[in-house]
Design goal:
The chain is of the alpha/beta class and 493 residues long. The protein folds into 3 domains: 229 residues, Spore Coat Polysaccharide Biosynthesis Protein SpsA, Chain A (Alpha-Beta Complex); 125 residues, UDP N-Acetylglucosamine Acyltransferase, domain 1, CATH 2.160.10; 41 residues, no CATH class. 22% of the residues lie in helices and 29% in strands. It is built from 10 helices and 37 strands. The strands form 7 sheets. The chain has a 19-stranded parallel β-sheet that branches. The protein has a 7-stranded mixed β-sheet with strand order 5-4-1-6-10-7-11, sandwiched between helices. A 3-stranded parallel β-sheet has the order 29-31-34, with no helix packed on it. The radius of gyration is 34 Å and the shape is elongated. The N and C termini lie far apart (83 Å). Uridine-diphosphate-N-acetylglucosamine (UD1) binds next to strand 1, helix 3 and strand 10.
Length: 493
Amino acid sequence: MTEQLTVIVLAAGGGTRMRSKTPKVLHAIGGRSMIGHVLHAVGTLEPDRLVTVVGHQRELVGPAVAELAPHAVLAVQEEQRGTGHAVRVALDALAEAGQRPTGGTVLVAYGDTPLLQGETLRDFVAAHAAAEAAVSVLSGIVEQPTGYGRIVREADGGVAAIVEEKDATDAQRAITEINSGILAVDAAFLAACVTRFNDDNASGEYYLTDAVGIARQDGLAVAAHPVLDAQQTEGVNDRVQLAELGRELNRRIVTGHQRNGVTVMDPASTWIDADVTLAADVTILPGTQLLGTTTVAEDAVIGPDTTLADCEIGAGARVVRSHGQLAVIGERASVGPYSHLRPGTRLGVGGKIGGFVETKNADIGDGAKVPHLSYVGDAEIGEGANIGAGTIFANYDGVAKHRTTVGRHAKTGSNNTFVAPVNIGDGAGTGGGTVVREDVPPGALAVSSGPQRTIDGWAQRKRPDTAQGRAAAAASDAAGAGPVSPDTETSGE
Ligand code: UD1
Ligand code: MG
């Protein structure tokens, strides 16, 4: 595209039917706000200028737009007096920012059409240029045209006008070719046009669509190009439509991954955000959500029933029925079932986080294992180490968080508590039930529980008439032991 391109995104409207404290265009599907999707699509055209018109709840929409499109000019439309007025405000804001279009095309889009794709816009702008029209409309043929502006064509097929629903005659209301809202307009013509709009219509608003009638009056060409994929220009007005377009977006994303070589066993129960990256030969099992900027490398198998947000999963890894956020899982590592990986979890190559394990700020080395029922917080576990079942890394003393390190190939016993800050050395070990409060040097074995006391015959004496006492007596008889003496006690090591 050699011509200059200016894009105006309209997002000043209210969105009352969302019944939400959140502005309509900031509601998200597929992991991006609606206006995020539109700005993404528009961004792929690399326009020379981009202006977004904000108004309603601009204190929320403005900063969101500034973050999504830092180079966009923000135009504030104090009062929403119609799409024609909004475009005038946009051109004024560009002029004020020293970015007045000096020629080329102005493309107008809305901030609430989340399925819109850059390719569709590119084709439309190219068609507009090819037709040498002053105004081009991206139209759509729909079964249910209610609410849309209708494309009124002349006998020879040329576009005569766009008539809004409220202003339409019965005959015009029967027209099924509608204005999607996306317009391409010659920049010089538009600059003159915005001063000629009036609000002499059923809504009392300045209609951008009147640009069509004005062009015709001036003897300029107008074109309408029906969009093949009408859902791309569908807007969201309420939460029912938000969910419908959300499901459709998801269907498109999932289908795209399948075409690229990802196995998705149950697309209907699989949710993948727009910014997720999946390699070929990844397998996704039912009930899985891959959110944010999650990436999954080849041959990994995710699911069933797993949610991963902003995670990085290595090749050949396996994650089963688990929940992860900002976690990095190494190649061929395995996670789950039923584990919770909180931010800052890193699991090394071939490592294991087994069932019912919670991790946070935990760097677990290559081949290291936390197989069962544990909490690992603020920890570094060396390669090849094995953490016993039911171990708690007690990282919080009620005031501050502290770190624990476990050395390479250390083997710690079951049901341990590591009271941070504490270090367990390379190749060290701990006995079952140990509460580690002091550093364990490399190669040492730490045992903190006292020697075991065993009081022989206790059950027979203290609970003779219970099932426990009778079982004990029977076992004692079978073993041929005599009657128990009252004070026999042995000590374990
Ligand atoms: C508009 C079109 C109609 C088209 C339909 C497609 C006009 C006059 N009508 O009607 O032909 O079929 O969209 O959905 O253009 N906005 C502003 N400032 C305003 C008014 C609107 O920024 O003062 C923004 C809204 O936030 C929204 C978009 O412009 O994103 C469209 O406004 P809306 O009120 O929904 O227009 P429709 O009546 O639906
Ligand atoms: Mg609308």
